[in-house]
Known about the structure:
- The chain has 11 helices and 10 strands.
- By secondary structure, it is α+β, with helices and mostly antiparallel strands.
- The chain folds into 2 domains: 2-70, Phosphorylase Kinase, domain 1 (2-Layer Sandwich), CATH 3.30.200.20; 75-259, Aminoglycoside phosphotransferase (APH), C-terminal lobe (Aminoglycoside 3'-phosphotransferase, Chain: A, domain 2).
- A hairpin with a 4-residue loop joins β8 (165-168) and β9 (173-175).
- It is globular, with a radius of gyration of 20 Å.
- It starts with a helix and ends with a helix.
Amino acid sequence: MEHFYQLGWTLDPIGGSSSDAYKAEINGDKFFLKRNTSPFITMLSVEGIVPKLVWTKRIETGEVVTAQHWKNGRCLTDEEMNSDRVASLMRKIHSSDKLLNTLERLGMQPMLPELLLNRIESSLSPKINAHKTVRKAIKYLNNKIPHIDSEFCRVCHGDVNNQNWLLSDEDELFLVDWEGAMIADPAIDIGMILYTYVDFKDWKNWLSKYGKSLDHDFRQRMKWYTLIQCLTMIQWYEDRKRYKEMNHWIIFLNDILEKDMMV
Length: 263
């Protein structure tokens, strides 16, 4: 990013040590700069799902840098995830033909359940794979693979935790960090929101705002995908030796398996 320093920009790296994202300022204007962002960001900006894209530039290193308006704000609280606004924005994302067509033009193929299961099984370390709760989850996943038509798949975010929801000081709601975007069953997003943030007694009401009924098939699919994502997070934290967080996800995994026996 030396190019921007030379032009008088002030850059503050954010989002960890990768130095891919920056809070940037020049002449009193503030931006969010990111390197090598997917062209998908353009359509997300047009749809108002992320802060407005200002420009895209290729710098001398060959990397592509995007600039979005910097938005002061905060992440949503756990309680705010059980809100009409979150349900409405998820509905907008999952129902958008423009978003779907954009990812299809970029060459993305549907992420069907069998592929997700194969990917997670091949990624687990021997230690994680041997854990009794993980083995129980793997057995369940193999026995309950959802059968869905690829035509049913829509654009999904893939990591809808509350830290990726930005509520601006102007009361605008955005869903950011789309690096894991996929074409998949919308239950992969909805399951993580409901299991993580919403009391079961409120599921029907939340889903009514989203535009979906809580039938047995949808609930079973939500559980299946949530277990997949739990395993993904367990391995992610083990890889980084963050064992406290890893154990949290193992407990969550076990809770879903033990307490949600009817599906």
